[in-house]
Amino acid sequence: xxPVLAFDIETxxxxxxxxxxxxxxxxxxxxxVAELAFxxxxxxxxNDFLPLHLQRVVVISCVLRVGKDFRVWSLAEPVQGEAEIxxxxxxxxxxxxxxxxxxxxxxxxxxxxxxxxxxxxLVAPRYWDLGDGDYPDSREFKWNNYISRYxxxxxxxxxxxxxxxPRASVPLDELAKLIGFPGKLGMDxxxxxxxWQAGRIAEIRNYCETDALNTYLVAVRFRxxxxxxxxxxxxxxxxxxxxxxxxxxKAHWQEFLAAWS
Length: 261
Prior knowledge:
The protein is α/β, with parallel strands linked by helices and 261 residues long. The protein has a single domain (4-259), classed as Ribonuclease H-like superfamily/Ribonuclease H (Nucleotidyltransferase, domain 5). The protein has helices at 15-22, 30-45, 82-96, 105-120, 157-161, 172-179, 192-197, 201-225, 231-248, 251-259; strands at residues 4-13, 55-66, 69-76, 99-102, 154-156. The protein has a five-stranded mixed beta sheet with strand order 3-2-1-4-5.
């Protein structure tokens, strides 16, 4: 089985960027800067979802399945700053050349990483290989790379299952729960900024990890549907993931397992 890396990111408003762009008074608090941006956004578009380049990455959670190994971890503040978080994610792509799997990664997660990585001056040659790189297998990337929408080195499950029609997309949380997976457990993206302001960084990290794992589990279900896994192989993978979560033993994984019907 080729390496698979399912991932999810969490972001907060880039208050320093907002101060710079709008020449805001430095005496304004982070909460006041963000609220001003939300108000401007609501007036312009009817919602307070900030543009992607103003989303500061505070967590990237990953589920890596390679060979017999299974790992779940997060790159997150305050241990790493944003630049290191994003660079280490792309370093993982450099090391393993995995299939990366996301839910709406083409519409949100990866464009955010592109803009923020560019701002920080980061490097990701393997990720950006379009068939003209220096790797021995670079030519293969002309036909299957991480960037092109209809290629599979990046599998955006939401986009593919909706037949690339935005009106046909569905929430990961609801689909995961309908399949029988836990879905979200007590937090969603709308609560991240409030949790960040309250200093609940570990809670955000745990939430992001469970979203990454829900994505991985839905991807395994999809592989069953398209014939990559037999029913026996699918059942074995589900049992393997359960056993690995039991072995990790952290509280949020115990809660996840308890919700997994």
